[in-house]
Structures are given as structure tokens and as C-alpha cells.
Write the C-alpha cells for this entry.
Amino acid sequence: MAANEIHIGDIGTIFEITLMDNLDVVDIGGATLMEIIFTKPDEAVTKVVNTAELVSDGTDGKMKYTILADTELDIVGSWKIQGRVILPTGTWSSDIDRFRVYGNL
């Protein structure tokens, strides 16, 4: 297993996002929808939306998605990731982050 790299076909990689409102953690325990959205680095800029799960009870604002199939991380390059939650009090999106997927030998 690579220490700091994500590779095409990896299974079990966990992506974790913390929802913040300015500098405050958003309690997402009562969320009616939690998603982690990936944008692939392909010409079509393919967007993939995955249902996320809480890391704990939600008071820490943390949600995660675990890669389940070798077909999910399928393109080398710079991917984008963003979390989105719907709560009774509003809808929040996280900052957009980037990560790189590397090829294999």
C-alpha cells in the first residue's frame, strides 16, 4: 500500500470531509442528505455523487465515503472533491479540495 498516493483501482480508500461555516464546525447529526461529490479529470468533467456516512455522531461535522470498487478511481490526474449536506436549518457545501490519482506499473 502506498503511504501518500491514491492509485487507479484502489479499493478501501476513505475520503473524509469536515463541514465548516466560517470557522465553526457544522453539526451534521440531523442531516437528511449527505453527499461527497467527485469531479473526474476527464474531458467531459464527469461528476460522481456518492452518499456519505457520519464518521461519529455528526457533532464534529465529519462525513466520509469509502471507495468500494476498482472502477471508481479510474482516471489518472487531478480530481476535485466537495461535501454537501442538507439539514433542517439549511444546506451547506464544503470547500472544494483536490487530490491526485496516480497510475500503476
Q: What stands out?
A: The radius of gyration is 14 Å.
